[in-house]
Amino acid sequence: MGRPFGVEVATLVQPYAARKRYLCPGCDGWIPVGEGHLVVVPELAPDLRRHWHRAFWDRELRRRYGRDRTTI
Ligand SMILES: [Zn+2]
After folding, report:
1. Which of 13, 47, 56, 59 has the smallest number of CB atoms closer than 10 Å to its CB?
2. How far is the CA of 51 from the centre of ligand 1 (A)?
3. 68 pLDDT higher than 70
4. Nearest 5 degrees, angle CA 56-CA 42-CA 2?
């Protein structure tokens, strides 16, 4: 499994900073305005940033890298 876009950096978006709703690729559900979540940005392809529910990003990391992966 390669990482063509480099390491993905996940950053918390605080509730007050969540001014738009976003579609979460982890569950295909909407993250509503005002809900804290994560923005995940590939290091080499910042245009591909996606917004994730925290729980679903955690689950995605476990799916990719195994249960010992630590996350924020
Ligand atoms: Zn989700």
Report:
1. 47
2. 9
3. no
4. 90
